[in-house]
Amino acid sequence: MENELSPFIKVILIDDQPETLIGVNGFPEVINDSDNGDERFVDIEKYFQVKWLQNMNDIKEYRNLCHEAEDLYGTSFIGEKGWVPEIVCFDYALSPGKNENTGIPEHIKQSNPNLLLIEHSQKYKRLARSYSDKEKNEIKAPKIREAIEHLQLSNPDFKDLNNTEKLKQAEEFLKENRQLPFYEPIVRSVNGKDNMGCFGGGLIVSQFRKHPCVGIPTTSKEAASIEGNEAEFFEWLIEDDLNNTFFHGVKTQRWTMLLPKAVENLRFKIKSLVSGNKITLALGHLMQLANGKIPEKDNEQIFTFYSDFGKHSLPLKGLFIDVAIENRNVEIKNFCSELLNQLIENTKAGMNVSILRNAYDFADSLITEYKNEEKFFDRINYSFLKQRLEMGLISTEQKKTFNNLLTKYFMTGVEDKYKDFFDIRSKDFGKDDAITKRYTVLFTMLNIYKIFQDFKLENAEKNEFKKQAYLFNEPEEYDYLLGIFPRAETPAILHIHHAYNKQTLDKALKDKVGFILSDVLKAKNENRAIKEEEKTLLQSYALGIELSKPYPIWIQ
Hints:
Layout: E1 9-14, H1 19-22, E2 48-53, H2 56-73, H3 75-80, E3 87-90, H4 106-111, H5 133-151, H6 164-176, H7 196-207, E4 214-217, H8 230-238, H9 255-275, E5 280-281, H10 283-290, E6 302-307, E7 310-315, H11 316-319, H12 325-347, H13 353-370, H14 373-390, H15 396-408, H16 434-456, H17 477-484, H18 502-513, H19 517-521, H20 535-544
Helix pairs in contact: 2-5, 2-7, 5-6, 7-8, 9-12, 10-12, 10-20, 13-16, 14-15, 16-17
């Protein structure tokens, strides 16, 4: 299974003096959890996890680590490590002003540890220091080697860079000799008049533009103070990435002001990404929330999605922290309903929420019958014995078993139809249109894939076929047909026992849902197989049933 972090909304704070944000002259403010402010929001660390970048060196190290780790291990790696934020709060000036000390006063940390936004179960922590030396060395080593080779240095000390100490010496040499990318520029803006935080924060938000990530500037500078300089140009350049949230002249920005604005923008960013098919939502859970079924337990009140940076879950109480408790469930329902409708609209299949819910429920029904071992294997056994009977190869004992099955399941001698049948042709699905049946079949196929996957992962408690060795293989066309037709009415001899009879089920599938199964599995687009617009919805269903990646090729 994929690595999955605890459900926090991850916040990066870029500020050389975070005490200006939390209020050095008194206790830090807490988030009110009600419109009237009578009820304080405590235990804020349950929902938000903050890490701190203090200066330009921290910003550069963080961005380099992310880029280099992504190049080496892929985008999901940095997501699994918890390096990808949902909120970036950044001050503009990162050079110390006159007579200013940096850092959070110790008496604030000691007297109010639970009122600060802190990293879960730890003290307020600088992000760049949260990586292990081993992780840093693994990520930095290729770049250091490349720089050394580029300079054609013959120093024998730099030959063995697998040694941690030698690697450190090489990095220090590059810094001292101002060789990119390791030297530090000379900062000419002093006394808090620079705009380094603006550039650093904006670049981080842009770096994660395909993830629900928003930026919140925290500067007290007036707009006039940056008019005509590079910071104003940079704001204009990236204003879309930050959802036009640049504002100036706020002297007392604290979490009480920043977080409500941040989560409001975060919800807007999620809607935008869903509209563009940039993230995948957990369909089953989304449907429950859109139906107003909000779980009572905190750990179940989550919003789950896949972005380019892996699987993530956000706490709903954090995502809607700006909404009064008495209104929160309604807002969650409305938000998720809007996302669900957008997800459906993206398929361009002419469906609606009602059709989707029916297909979802029908797929559950088919899989329930598929997992009914007695009836499922009785149907397969009957098929096998019927074949033996027609070939004249049935034994006396087998004939007795066959007759028992015939009696048990009310076979008619002439039509030879299985009266306890249940499949996509059943009357349960008879009144529904082809779109409903289409998605019923596709959802059922993903469930079949998951049953095989669970078995291979030895996740015995989640499957009912503990003794079926064939589940160690990848599901094949026959396996999917058995899920779609778990107890087929006809043919009497199933496709798994007589290849010719597969044509009967192929024809039934073509008539009911408009495609041939082999076209889907080969990822063909002819004959109304999987369309590109449908894949996000199918991936959302896969995420909702906790199917692990890589997904089957036909929905990739």
